[in-house]
Specification:
It comes from Gemmata obscuriglobus. By secondary structure, the chain is an alpha/beta fold. It has eleven helices and five strands; from the N terminus they run αααααβββαβααβααα. The protein has a five-stranded mixed sheet with strand order 3-2-1-4-5, sandwiched between helices.
Length: 275
């Protein structure tokens, strides 16, 4: 082999007995750190978020280095699957106008909420999930799950958000945004918003960008959790989804819209600077 590769035997033996250089040792340590973080977040991060997480732990490096380590180690973030539409906007119910600009900055907590509905597959059948997200902190503040897509589903998610965030105070100045689905256009949901003084606004027909924040959350939920699961029962799915939202998404997961900061950390910093 030395003859074929035109390498001297003495050079080969010297290379084999040589200690690992300091640079190579540092690279191996950094590679192990990246692998450990990737395993810790259950393969939910790509190179940008892995880089942000590593930097937050006091380990400076470039995002390109993290991407290279991932390629060499054969690790990657979970990928999304084909989108399936669940919103039924072909109804005769009245819809609210759209005023929540896509580029608008919510600025303050509890001034812009976004609500949405999706479905989760289980061996028992579909499990329907409705959530409410505070756009200022990208935090899920209300949620509800049911085996049927009833009108109560979205109202229960709203009630949870009202109890947790408004705590009996007025919702004046708060805009609640949703798609044009029949569940959000029905009288019960509209009445509760009006009772709390909350302004209701809906996406324009056929414009998915108006509802991008909520679609982004559902994409993350399914890519990072649901698509790798085979839920036997709806109860199993409920427990898994609650754990993902409460212990990972709301507290740990870094969000690009917040500068790659987790919602919980962003909220703590906000509260400290606005006392």
């Amino acid at each position: 082999m030395c003859r074929v590769l035109e390498v001297s035997r003495s050079g080969l033996y010297a290379w084999r007995s040589r200690d690992v250089s300091a640079a190579e040792q540092r690279r191996e340590e950094r590679t192990e750190e990246v692998k450990a973080i990737h395993a810790e977040v259950k393969a939910r991060y790509g190179s940008p978020r892995l880089h942000a997480e590593r930097v937050s732990r006091g380990h400076a490096c470039s995002v390109n280095f993290v991407a290279q380590v991932m390629r060499e180690a054969g690790i990657a973030a979970r990928t999304k699957r084909t989108f399936r539409q669940t919103t039924d906007s072909n109804h005769g119910l009245p819809v609210a106008p759209h005023v929540l600009a896509r580029a608008s900055d919510p600025g303050e907590p509890n001034t812009r909420w976004c609500a949405g509905l999706t479905h989760i597959p289980t061996r028992e059948g579909w499990l329907y999930l409705a959530v409410v997200e505070d756009l200022c902190r990208r935090r899920i503040v209300g949620g509800s799950m049911s085996e049927t897509m009833t009108r109560r589903l979205v109202v229960d998610a709203l009630e949870m958000a009202l109890a947790a965030r408004l705590q009996g105070s007025s919702g004046a100045g708060l805009v609640a945004h949703s798609d044009r689905g029949s569940q959000y256009a029905r009288a019960h949901d509209q009445r509760r918003l009006k009772e709390e003084g909350i302004t209701c606004r809906m996406s324009r027909r056929g414009n998915c960008w108006d509802h991008a924040a909520m679609e982004s959350f559902f994409a993350s939920l399914k890519k990072e959790l649901v698509h790798d699961q085979d839920y036997v029962t709806r109860a199993e799915a409920k427990a898994s989804i609650v754990e993902y939202i409460e212990t990972f998404y709301n507290r740990v997961r870094r969000h690009s819209a917040l500068g790659d900061v987790a919602p919980g950390e962003y909220e703590r910093t906000y509260n400290q600077t606005h006392r």
